[in-house]
Amino acid sequence: MTRPEKSRIARARKLRREMSLPEVLLWTALRGARLDGLKFRRQHPVGPYVLDFYCPAAHLAVEIDAWSHGAEDRPEQDAIRDMRLAERGVHTLRIPAGEVLRSVDDTLATILETARPWTLNPPPSGGGVGP
């Protein structure tokens, strides 16, 4: 394992320990294939990125965006990140943290609505989605 891979994995482990409240609430609802049998991983490393949640069957990343994602150059950075993930065959669903806090059930419905078509027709993989 290379040094950058070890660093990414260590960062992912740290992020798992330091999840935000919206991430904790969503993970509680997603873990153990509770969402219609779909399995999710939390703080999953993919290339140079660590995804908040990742569903391998749907090639779907679910990102919980705090208010800071609308500030400064963050929207541009997020768009580039989403494009690079798409090149790897990963579709990104961005959900504002406030939506999770308002209704975890509505958030789960949005995730399921987004994930289902991708499980039936997964995007072509552009080099894998592992670390």
From TrEMBL:
Protein name in the entry: DUF559 domain-containing protein
InterPro entries given in the database record: DUF559, Endonuclease_DUF559_bact, Restrct_endonuc-II-like
Gene3D superfamilies, sorted: VSR Endonuclease
Signal peptide: none
DUF559 domain residues: 9-114
Pfam families: DUF559
Family matches, as SUPFAM superfamilies: Restriction endonuclease-like
Protein species of origin: Caulobacter segnis
Top-level taxon: Bacteria
